[in-house]
Design a protein that fits this description.
269 residues; mainly alpha; Cytochrome Bc1 Complex, Chain D, domain 2; two-stranded antiparallel ribbon; 12 helices
């Protein structure tokens, strides 16, 4: 160690010491950059290969399970609309929630147990996304609604934009022509977000010009708050509004009145 220090002290003022150090630093930086660039290119190449494989899988699944309604090239047919340009978000919402595939396209699609697993759903979404640009699918982790959302703002936005169909408490409600707005309780955050950006069935599309990304996250945060909120007043009665509460009060009150009338009649005898 002492000899090494002595060697450095002896040659540190040498006229070639500066250029040598500069050359060494440039050489190390160049090697590091080349290695990093090569690793990035390999990663991108692998990602591209994985995506191509996923698209190929999705195309096969689509031909087997979806083309009979949506057409061989997703161009649409008499039974179902075109999927060109709907994006991966629409496919992820419809397939992962079990709404698609469905047997009767004349009926409103209902949420049920999904037919395809996560890998197959991702493959279908990748294939449809490869046909034309559209809204991208998201994950619950990517949204970070717990961190970026605002519960109070989300409640106000929900009452302004969503409550007329989905009920003030998000329990769902009836629409015209036999349609209905489903409950938003128990729905995964990513599916709520995807529904807002794609507008499935009778639902409008909430573009970023209508609701910003942060406002969508606030709505999700409010929905999750209501979902886990305890009922401080006793039985929640489904939180569907005054109709249920009035019906229970009427029937309960009427039953009590009938009971009192029977009791009075019995006592009078």
């Amino acid at each position: 160690m002492t000899k090494a220090i002595g060697f450095l002290s002896r040659y540190r003022r040498h006229r070639f010491a500066g250029p040598f150090l500069l050359f060494s630093a440039l050489f190390i930086a160049g090697v590091g950059f080349t290695v990093a660039q090569a690793a990035t290119e390999v990663k991108q190449e692998l990602t591209s290969v994985d995506r191509a494989t996923l698209i190929a899988e999705g195309k096969e699944i689509f031909a087997r399970g979806c083309s009979s309604c949506h057409g061989l090239n997703a161009e649409g047919a008499g039974a179902a609309p075109s999927l060109i340009g709907v994006g991966a978000a629409s496919v992820d919402f419809q397939v992962a929630t079990g709404r698609m595939p469905m047997a009767d396209m004349s009926q409103q699609a209902m949420r049920k147990e999904p037919v395809y697993d996560e890998r197959e759903t991702a493959a279908l979404a990748a294939y449809v996304a490869s046909l034309a640009p559209g809204p991208a699918a998201v994950t619950n982790e990517e949204l970070a609604w717990e961190r970026d959302g605002n519960t109070a703002e989300g409640g106000e936005l929900f009452r302004t934009n969503c409550a007329m169909c989905h009920n003030l408490a998000g329990q769902g409600g009836a629409l015209t022509q036999g349609k209905y707005a489903p409950t938003v309780m128990g729905v995964e955050p990513r599916h709520i977000y995807e529904a807002m950006v794609t507008g499935p069935q009778a639902m409008p599309v909430f573009a970023n010009t209508v609701l910003t990304h942060e406002e969508k996250l606030s709505i999700i945060k409010w929905i999750k708050f209501v979902e886990s909120e305890p009922s401080q007043g006793g039985a929640a009665l489904g939180r569907v509004g005054p109709v249920t509460e009035g019906a229970v009060a009427f029937l309960l009150g009427l039953g009590i009145l009938i009971g009192i009338a029977v009791w009075l009649t019995t006592k009078a005898r």
